[in-house]
Amino acid sequence: MAAAAGLLLAACSTEAPTAPAAGGGGETQGEDASGDEDMKIFMAPKFTGLAYFEVAREGGERAGEELGIEFEYIGSDKAEATEQIATLTNAIPQAPDALVVSAIDGDAVAPALKQARDAGIKVVTYDADAAVDARDLFVNQLSYELAASTMLDAALLNSPEGGLVAFISASPTAPNHTAHVRIMKELIDTDPKYSSLSYVDTVQFAGDDATKSQELALNLIQANPDLKVIISSSAVSAPAAQQAIINAGKSGEVFATGVALPSSVRDFIKDGHSTAFMMWDPAELGYIATVAAHQLVTGEITAEEGQMIDAGEAGTYEVLADGEVQYNKPLMFTADNIDDFDF
């Protein structure tokens, strides 16, 4: 539990920090930032309308304003790979300088992203990656290992004695969710810290749909009388699962945890239905991804391993192997701090 308690618990808001001046080297925006006023960066979430992506959008918009560039938020409100592919394909003739994309299906969207790169458009993925050769950089909210261990820490905060856990993911093609579950299973199997946990091997998929998530959670409760915790990487499924637990009259016996906006689980935590959920700051993630895209376009970075991305007050981040950039600022929401977060 000490590791969980030691996670970053500082207050966090949707207001992103200040970016370095456009053009680098301390230049001010405007005429000194040659050509930046004509730069266009498009952000494409998995789908629009989801609160998590709307918060990330705020960070991207803030970066766009500070850098003096045109920022557009594009996409469909349908959580389907074909819809995102159409969004990306239709964006290419509009000649943005960069695309910032959360891939709903990393392999399915790869051809469209490769087409964009062939057209000279820089591609940065955030939140959920695409095929490595289809983008320049991936701004990963947490390393998959850190995300997995943080979710298991949250599970143990909810159920200190351990017990049986089950997983709900968005889809079998969501690369981050798939990796999270795989690593959580490995940690339960091999790490003494999590030896009190066991798991239902079959993963459920809810497509980031609240109603489907509640149905799956109820099915898991009914099929597994010893179930203690439902874990989800989906900011939709985790709170929906907790609501299903309450509806089933199992509050205090079964718990949901995983990734969730604090606003979506505040009442659950304050009312004692749940002890802990986790996340990171989506606004800062969107901010950093947009700053990284800008720096790729200006040539300040080339996505070469070892280069540094200066995101001003948001921090400095190293480009790792395969163009991965790790944000790595987990937040654990508990009764002690849930009111400190406003997103």
UniProtKB/TrEMBL annotation:
Chief location of this protein within or outside the cell: other
Subcellular location: Cell envelope
Pfam families found in the cross-reference section: Peripla_BP_4 (PF13407)
GO molecular function: carbohydrate binding
Domain (Periplasmic binding protein): residue spans on this chain: 41-300
A GO-annotated cellular component: outer membrane-bounded periplasmic space
InterPro entries: Bact_Solute-Bind_Prot2, Peripla_BP_I, SBP_2_dom
Record-linked PANTHER family: ABC-TYPE SUGAR TRANSPORT SYSTEM PERIPLASMIC COMPONENT-LIKE PROTEIN (PTHR30036:SF8), D-XYLOSE-BINDING PERIPLASMIC PROTEIN (PTHR30036)
Protein name: Sugar ABC transporter substrate-binding protein
Source organism of the structure: Cellulomonas carbonis T26
Taxonomy of the source species: Bacteria, Bacillati, Actinomycetota, Actinomycetes, Micrococcales
